[in-house]
Amino acid sequence: HIAPLAGLARPGAIFDPDQTFCFGLLSYVPVLMHTLVIMALNKCYRCVAERLTENENHKLQQDHDNSLIAKRFVFEAFDCYVSLFYVGFVQQDIRKLRSE
Description:
Strand content: under 5%
Oligomer: single chain
């Protein structure tokens, strides 16, 4: 929770989901920004996973591929779903979780 950013979603603010300005489309800006951040981090994680796997020095290509797939899955699953786990288990806010 970042107070200055959360203030932008209060009633009457620029990211208020009930606004009528621009047909409420501005309320989707944070969602789009979150999606772009996830995509950028996944790209970085892909490079990190490839470098880590190259440094493991596998004998077989299949072992190399399996290791790379496992790393990418863990990195990308964590990146995509960590916010849901945070809302569900740390904040324990069911209404907010359902809106995600």
